[in-house]
Design a protein that fits this description.
Distance between the termini of chain A: 87 Å
Distance between the termini of chain B: 50 Å
Radius of gyration of chain B: 19 Å
Number of strands of chain B: 9
Oligomer: heterodimer
Strand content of chain B: 15-25%
Radius of gyration of chain A: 30 Å
Largest interface: A-B, 59 and 45 residues
Largest sheet of chain B: 4 strands, antiparallel
Largest sheet of chain A: 14 strands, mixed
Number of helices of chain B: 6
Shape of chain A: elongated
Helix content of chain A: 25-40%
Strand content of chain A: 25-35%
Structural class of chain A: alpha/beta
Order of helices and strands of chain B: HEHHHHHEEEEEEEE
Helix content of chain B: 25-40%
């Protein structure tokens, strides 16, 4: 038996496997409990579900893998158990074949994700494991190492070396033969790996018995496999494609093992997924595969998008008018520019439309000056006339124009997430959710679009949503069965991909209605909540700091009996009931004030801002909810003349004139 | 501590939690993958299909895998290697049958006019020098032809034999299979196939 058995015989575990699984799991649980006494059987089993639900190779190999990987998976939850098992099986095979007394130690060369190195080397004690790194170092001892004979690892055989030092090391250790080269999930930002360049130094130690093993995205692995076949059609080659489920999506992966090559093969590993993309794919030229969708015919009171804005006039959609409530009080310590004053009273128009792409791809593009998604067809044709403008992205700028005048660029990503059916991102940039205010205005309410389309659409969500954000989604009926979690750099492909046009920063009837639904469904908060509320600025550490917050707080608390709240520390239930019961709320414009989505009509809100940060957001929410709004603008700390370094619409630290604020509160209470 | 797992019910656990996050590939997945890699053909496609047969034994995968093997110039080596590595079952043998039907129409396995009803790799058998006896879970194939296949040499060593079956125990005469060494009858396995 060898590693090929693992590649060809793995599959779902069947009832005939259960007795063996139990015996092996019993051992695994005993070991896991030795390492972490807090582990209980339920947690152990859930962490090991990929081990329990699958059979790995033949019966004996499955026994071994069930014990070892059930322990390891409890302490390295992000690893791919199948890939880890293949890597380890190659080392076990090499370890057995190592003839120390004749040939000396064999080397195992390891490249790629360091997390797999020690796992691969489990029980490989007769070999020398060398992980290639930019500089020499040590391998961190895994928490599970040597906690049982089942997890035996000789750490003195694990080495971390730069490629230039490998030959010297091999010579010093009497190693003449490199038994295996393992490459596990190499990162995209490490660039392509050319075998003839990277491993030239050890070429003399390679031969027909050297085993090559590659694990990672199926796109990368199959690309290499096809190169191998082209190089030598008689090669011993095994390849196993499989997928990792992510909610309603799949990530394709594969493991490749080959040997029988006389010399260092001329291969290139292109990590992750790559696709050559072209630009200039237009909605107007590609009816059918591309369409703009009018999603709110029955639920949006607005007018059709058939006039007024020439560059998007061809887009099907609805304009919704978001009215901005006129303030009952407005005072500023600095002269406000005209456009700022207009924002406190000028209505906003929100365009409701979505791009639909059959077999669509969503590509995150980020650099220090740009963060957005661009969209392409499955063949890599980037859409350039709907929603985002790809021409402003580094992706577009990296493109080269060929002799035919076609602009081409290569997209690269560590991971491709595939959705069967329809999918839609809740965000319109990869990290928008990190600003809770943007999440509340422009992201969460987009679930209404899915409802309006009356189609089974999976929502694409960033993996690091806050607990409260997830709770709100759950209350709106979007639980795990409708979610695909994505990492910041993930590329997503869906049979049908929807991309709604980004909304302007304003609340409207359409995008605020979800909060009534949340308030209706959240569990009751039984304790009393304050009537006069000051939103705390104490946890704010980045920008828009209210630098005389202490004076503001003292005045409001001591003279008017305000109570300070920190919404980010509240439960959702407490937050809903606090805003719902408040008579007056004072705070700086931002997510804390947008808790007003739960407010009642008779409430008064006084927003305090820096002179540059004049937004229509709370004013538009006041119109929808029916509460009154006042503004007190302070002075911000930035160079008046240095416009280039000033952030759009403010964000500078600022101070508030406490006396102006006192008058605003007195007016509100009178 | 290790008594905790005595009462564990894996069937119930899998029923509740599923088979985990690792999912088997299907033909449509291979097609989707080709949208990124370009056409997946030749040995790579055949080997990928070979690794999928254990979990997707649909007629489409079986025939695609068999066709991929049959067109290779070194199909005999590849077939033997496939049978060595794969889990022996009706799907595996059906692939072998389809390969041999295209390449060696006189092979004993080709007498089957369709997928076998039963195929098992035999790891444990008893031999008294003239008869070989092993146990299978086949219960209804008493009157059907049996084909014995040497997994190490499926092309050269295959024979249709007459066998008697009683309570799941099958007895076949060794003299009909001159490659069977009565002293070494367990591993490596041979396959017993019933139509």
């Amino acid at each position: 038996m060898d590693v090929s058995t693992l590649l060809l015989r793995s599959g779902r575990s069947e009832p005939g496997d259960y007795d063996r699984k139990i015996l092996s799991l019993r051992n695994g649980y005993r070991i896991a409990k030795l390492i972490d006494t807090d582990i209980d059987i339920d947690r152990f089993m859930k962490n090991a579900v990929d081990v329990i639900g699958r059979k790995y190779g033949g019966d004996a190999l499955d026994s071994y893998i069930t014990t070892t990987m059930s322990v390891i998976k409890n302490f390295s939850q992000d690893i791919d158990i199948f890939a880890a098992s293949v890597l380890n099986s190659v080392v076990l095979q090499m370890n057995f074949q190592t003839r120390i007394f004749i040939d000396g130690n064999q080397s195992i060369i390891f490249d790629g994700d360091p997390e797999y190195f020690a796992i691969a080397m489990l029980h490989g004690n007769a070999t020398q494991g060398i992980r290639i790194a930019s500089e020499a170092g040590m391998t961190e001892v895994p928490v599970w190492a040597n906690k049982s004979p089942a997890l035996e690892i000789n750490m003195s055989t694990l080495h971390v070396l730069p490629m230039g030092e490998v030959t010297k090391f091999q010579a010093a250790n009497g190693t003449r033969f490199t038994g295996a080269i393992l490459i596990a999930d190499p990162p995209v930002d490490g660039g392509a790996i050319s075998f003839t360049e990277r491993y030239a130094e050890i070429a003399h130690s390679l031969g027909p018995d050297t085993i090559y093993c590659l694990t990672g995205t199926a796109e990368m692995v199959f690309d290499v496999a096809m190169q191998v076949e082209k190089l030598d059609p008689t090669v011993d080659l095994y390849i196993k494609p499989y997928a990792i489920r992510n909610g309603r999506a799949l990530e394709y992966r594969a493991a490749l093992v080959f040997s029988g090559l006389d010399q260092l093969p001329d291969l290139v590993v292109r990590p992750g997924v790559t696709k050559e993309c072209t630009f200039d794919y237009k909605l107007s030229d590609n009816g059918g595969d591309l369409a703009s969708i009018n999603y709110g015919i029955r639920t949006i009171s607005g007018r059709n998008n058939n006039d007024g804005v020439p560059d998007i006039a061809a887009v099907d959609g609805m304009w919704e008018n978001a009215r901005v409530r006129r303030p009952f009080f407005l005072s500023s310590s600095a002269p406000l520019p005209l456009e700022a004053r207009e924002r406190t009273s000028q209505d906003q128009e929100i365009l409701h439309t979505a791009l639909r792409i059959k077999d669509g791809i969503m590509i995150p593009v980020e650099d220090p000056s740009s963060s957005t998604f661009v969209f392409s067809s499955g063949k890599g044709k980037v859409v350039n006339d709907h929603g985002t403008d790809p021409t402003g992205t580094p992706f577009y700028q990296s493109a080269k124009v060929n002799a035919d005048g076609v602009r081409r660029a290569v997209m690269k990503s560590d991971r491709l997430v595939r959705v069967t059916g329809a999918a839609m991102p809740l965000m319109f940039t990869p990290q928008l959710h990190k600003w809770h205010s943007h999440f509340m205005i422009q992201c969460l309410p987009r679930i209404r679009i899915i409802r309006d389309m009356e189609e089974d659409v999976a929502i694409l969500l960033p993996h690091d949503l806050r607990k409260k954000q997830i709770e709100m989604l759950d209350l709106l009926g979007f639980g795990e069965d409708k979610i695909v979690w994505i990492q910041r750099t993930d590329v997503v492909q869906a049979d049908t991909l929807y991309y709604p046009w980004p909304w302007r920063l304003a609340f409207s009837e359409y995008n605020s209605a979800v909060y009534d639904e949340i308030a209706d469904k959240v569990e009751a908060y039984e304790r009393p909540t304050p009537k006069r509320v000051l939103i705390s600025r104490e946890s704010r550490k980045s920008w828009r700091n209210l630098i005389n917050y202490d004076a503001v707080r003292q005045m409001l608390v001591e003279e008017f009996g305000f109570e300070v709240i920190s919404p980010e520390k509240m439960t959702l239930s407490e937050e809903v009931y606090t805003y719902r019961n408040a008579d007056i709320v004072v705070g700086a414009e931002g997510a804390g004030m947008y808790g007003a989505v739960f407010s009642r009509p008779a409430a008064k809100y006084i927003t305090i801002c820096d002179e540059d940060y004049v937004m229509p957001i709370l004013g538009s929410l006041a119109e929808v909810r029916g509460f009154d709004i006042g503004y007190v603008f302070g002075e911000s700390f930035r160079a008046d003349k240095d416009v280039n370094r000033r952030l759009l619409w403010g964000h500078a630290d600022f101070a508030i004139d406490v006396e102006r604020l006192r008058k605003a509160v007195q007016t509100a209470l009178s | 501590m290790d008594l905790v797992l005595h009462d564990i019910d894996i069937a119930a656990f899998i029923g509740r939690e599923g088979h985990g996050s690792i999912v088997d590939f299907g033909l449509h997945d291979l097609d989707k993958l080709a949208g990124w890699t370009g056409p997946i053909e030749g040995l790579v496609r055949t080997r990928a299909l070979s690794a999928m047969v254990n979990t997707d034994c649909s007629p489409e995968v079986i025939s695609a895998c068999a066709e991929g093997l049959a067109v290779q110039s070194r199909w005999q080596d590849l077939l033997a290697d496939f049978l060595r590595c794969a889990q022996i079952g009706t799907a595996t043998i059906e692939i072998a049958r389809q390969v041999l039907r295209r390449t060696l129409p006189t092979h004993p396995l080709v007498v089957l006019d369709g997928p076998p009803s039963h195929a098992v790799a035999v790891y444990d058998a008893l031999c008294d020098g003239t008869e070989l006896t092993f146990v299978t879970d086949a219960t209804s194939d008493q009157n059907r032809p049996w084909i014995v296949l040497d997994l190490a040499d499926p092309v050269g060593r295959a024979k249709q034999v007459s066998a008697t079956m009683l309570n799941g125990r099958i007895t076949i005469p060794v003299e009909e299979m001159d490659w069977v060494d009565p002293r070494h009858v367990t591993c490596p396995a041979f396959a017993a196939i019933a139509q």
